């Protein structure tokens, strides 16, 4: 039985320089990082990008950190409008260009996946047009990407549930490079099934997992123990599903106390895994070990 590989998201270290954030994350014992491309964190539009990517790749290797690339920066493309433009907007080519840059950076870093989402449908864009734009943008990204893509259902966005993701995947023709990013908190927030069941059902499609606590019907990423999720069964479900990718903490509003929050988070996850491992242990094997 293989233990999960826990990581931490750099969007929860927004007050740190990226190299400092990576060193803190590694120093706390995490095995990976979910790296959100943003101002000051491998800005894909900054001069000298190739040199910086090479330096970060070297640092990740030195720190023995695996990496996934996240693309959810709030104001990277538009200083006035959060997350805009998306693949649904009239200016969607800017988002597609950004996602292609992210995929190229991911390839250079040796990333296990590059994660992205649909976005919120603009009021001026009819639902049918928004869906056509999303399918077209995803298809074009799949054609050019050389790393696995993890599409994340996000509450309030055009694709907000795992069922929506399946519909999108079917529309794309089920390409092998188009996987699923699953946020454990989102399962509690709006998926119809219990969180462990949601994990098991999604298991074969997972290329990236984000983890955080959450309450039913409220899209707010919470520290472990402050929401409604029981984590040992969730980690047991990930193990049962055969998932071997990163399980990265997603707390984007906690940068003000990042080192302390990250330390508490890995302690909680380790304790949850210890309990899950006991529950998963084969009784026959346990009897033999006595």
UniProtKB/TrEMBL annotation:
The regions listed as transmembrane in this protein's record are none
Per the database record, which ranges form the Xylose isomerase-like TIM barrel domain?
Answer: 23-271
According to the UniProt entry, the coiled-coil residues are none
Which Gene Ontology molecular-function terms are recorded? isomerase activity
What InterPro entries does the record tag this protein with? IolE/XylAMocC-like (IPR050312), Xyl_isomerase-like_sf (IPR036237), Xyl_isomerase-like_TIM-brl (IPR013022)
- Identify the keywords attached in UniProt to this record, alphabetized: Isomerase
Q: Which PANTHER family match?
A: HYDROXYPYRUVATE ISOMERASE, XYLOSE ISOMERASE
* Name the record gives this protein: Xylose isomerase
Q: What is the lineage of its organism?
A: Bacteria, Bacillati, Actinomycetota, Actinomycetes, Streptosporangiales
